[in-house]
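Quick question about two entries, pasted in order.
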Amino acid sequence: MTNHWIDIKNSDCILIMGSNAAANHPISFKYVTQAMEKGAKLISVDPRFTRTSSKADIYASLRSGTDIAFLGGMIKYILDNKLYNKDYTAAYTNAPFIVGKDFSFKDGLFSGYKGANGGDGPSLGSYDKSKWAFEMDDKGIPKMDRTLAHERSVFQLMKTHYNRYDLDKVSSVTGTPKQDLLEVYKTYAASGARGKAGTIMYAMGWTQHTVGTQIIRTMAMIQLLLGNMGVAGGGVNALRGESNVQGSTDHCLLWHIWPGYLKTPKASNTSLEAYNTKWTPKSNDPLSANWWQNYPKYSVSLLKSFFGENATAANEFGYNWLPKVDDDKAYSWFDLFDAMYKEEINGFFAWGQNPACSGSNAGKIRKSLEKLDWMVNVNLFDNETGSFWHGPGVDPSKVKTEVFMLPASVSVEKEGSITNSGRWMQWRYPGPKPLGNSRPDGDIIMHLGHLIKEEYKKDGKFADPIKNLKWDYETAGVYDPHKTAKEINGYFIQDTEIKGTVYKKGTLVPSFAFLQADGSTSSGNWLYCNSYTEKGNMSARRSQKDAVNNIGLYPEFAWCWPVNRRIIYNRASVDPKGQPWDEKNWVVRFEGEVKDGKYVTNKWTGDVPDGGWYPLENPDGTKRTDAKSPFIMRKHGYGQIFGPGLADGPFPEHYEPLECPVEKNYFSSQMINPTAVVYSTKDDQHATCDPRFPFVGTTYRVTEHWQTGLMTRPQEWLMELQPNVFVEMSEELAKLRGIENGERVKVSSARASLDCIAVVTKRFKPFKIGYATVHQVGIPWHYGWRWPSTGAEESANLLTPPAGDPNTRIPETKAFMVNVTKL
């Protein structure tokens, strides 16, 4: 989230798309309701009429997988009707940048497309992104046209790109009636007026597509055009599926990052210097803060946290003790299980997860587990993953995998922090003590680490990383979350003088601005530097006092990264002179002293400013040379309407899902994302426009169950509320197939079939796609054969496809093709 949960109440228009927040994030809806009570409009866009839709002022349906077409039409509407915030767009985004002459877009492909190059990987193709570069002046600064008139400016290229997204074509692709499109566009675009703000609440309905990243990019472009980034009630807000998904991502749950979104080193980064040089961007623009120029400070401080006194300048702070990934290889969820399936991986820790039910194309995942030598299942209870060896259709006598179960404690039995979707790090205390022989994860990890270290003292290839690893996060033999939190914040490793002040060895670092690249500081995650300081545990604070602007920041309740800033890019909430675009719900404002029309003192009030430099202009309109542009994490300092770093293009473009119900893409002859990842073993079947599978399928959650159901399916009272996996369908489809509400039916895809209860409702309606009628069905994914023990209910992910987004490799579980037949 760029903003946070409470801030939703400040919005004038809330678009909930790719999410059913009322059912799946019900506490968040408290703030939606508060906004509506003050006059805000709520828009729900969803293939199904959901609980969120029932509360909305406007509901619009769309076929799963067509979000970019829907949002691209909104961009065209905003541009055609000049509803964008021109001052904001010209000053704060890269809309004025001039794109090089090598850039082009023709019939669904951007310039530089290279195809799959004959490789054996799952990617359908890639681009030479150098073809999308900006033109530079003689100082190495991007050329700009602030009037936005240059034919190769980002703004004009964007207008040309989305001019194709007219109402007729968008409606033909999405199935959304034209009058509904217009109502949504008009209502949301009104949030671009000065003093207004609109926000987006999205979840897995956007991410789980072969174009998932680009869906979110499209909305980010809309927010930049309307001036909705950095402001109260604005932003792009992801609704995470668990209370600590944000925290786990921050601390490198994903394969391609180190803590704090540092890059995982590649094999070609042969030294620490090469690594830092590769990932440290350089900008020649004096107005660019280019915050990632501090990359070496954060990487070296992280290495010092990993290896402590064993990390020295002489050994590159232990950089070469850490693993490197092959330059041309991915190690995502999909890729790991693909390697496991091919017997390239022989051991697996399944820690706090249930891939036998949660992974796309779950049948292949289950077969992959059979090919292991050993697996350790760390979880609260046994699950379908831990018991795969005696699951449906499996002969235990033919499974070689040795399975170990380590029972873990539930969250309420542990002390420590969680970081919620709004980036708020909140400290929690244990309630009941762990039951049985279960142990907290921290204790399991520490004990395992000690055992591994002992083994490596005896023998082991490449022992240095294990022997030199700092491993002292216990007190009296028990894992200590406070020690870990302090390590994450970071220490001064030696007496260090910064700007005339000496910080003593062993002192907690006050914020990431104090981190150094010479090994004199440590930090387990630079973003969390400032969370546990000499003043104490900032995340444990519980003050109910709001900030001076009274917009729900609550700066002394818990702690928020970075440096307790509640709204990211908040200097974009003011005009170039430092005064708020929105005087009512202002986030920050500049209150420096003025003499002769010039600022002479530096003073910001409100939220922690996103960099404390002077505003870009003085009150008299003269430019300042000691200012910085507000988008400080971008190399050039501007919000990116044109995104030249993504795998599948600098502008989002509509492509059909891998499996779709239409024979052509109405926008180009390029049917699917030309850079999508599609896996191709004999257990990775897929079918596009196959008459055997005529209906669009999607998956979703219900309020009564949690994730794969491990914590809810064993509860009889919850199973009474939602006892069966079901397939929800329209009355029209049920009539077509002769299906009655409550009957058992079979849902099948190219990969598997699933027995379900038919739920016939008015919540789904057939779509008019071109000249065809298209039906869609939906299935919740919380079920599995292990609980209840009858084994009658199974996972919807047995049906989902072996394809993913090229940027993230998240699976396309929200749009695939199925058939529904009566049993």
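Here is the second entry:
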Amino acid sequence: MTFSRHSGDRAQRGGAEPMNADGPQMATDGVHGSRARALGPPRDDDRVRDRVCMGVIGAPHGVRGAVRIKSFTAAPEAIAAYGALEDEGGERRFTLRVIGTAKGDGMLIATLSGVADRDRAEALRGLRLYAPRDALPATAEDEFYHADLVGLLAVLPDDTPVGRVIAVHDFGAGDVIEIARAAGPPVLVPFTRATVPVVDIAAGRIVVDPPAGLLDAPRERVTESVEEPAA
């Protein structure tokens, strides 16, 4: 199964065929166009670790409490199929009913239980909605939920720290993980068994064995100075 940007989707490591540094060009210098980073709080919150962020509430729609929702499920409408969703603190629960779609990838229009006017809808803007982890289908061998990968510590085979996984992308040539480093720009690493031989969710880390040159700092551009001719 291929992986998309959705928290509820799954990433599967590719086979042993590695992607070398001379393969498909992969950006390593910041934000990657339309590929959205995963939403989700830090992994040191045990309560959140047992849940998956399924979407985030956007602006109100109309005056009767409907809202725009950015869904992170593979089929956006499926966000309503997981039962009542709760907020980040687990204090409020909402049952969703999808009533339409909105402009934008994964955008829906939905009503929320207990929300009947625009003011209440406005107060929920930016709220993340979570489903219990056990409500999601089990993963196959070598298949991982986006929410499980984001936040993992990335180390080299000799345990040298590389950084932390901040996103997973699919640019068309297979899944890649984006790793933020303490120094330098983020780096994209092919999510294959050869390049990521160990994924230890319980230990909170992955082992990265990158092709030569993949983690090197980008070359600085050299600007030649041009001397103006003497008057």
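Reply: Helices lie at 46-49, 118-123, 146-149. The chain is about 5% helix and 30% strand. Hope that helps.
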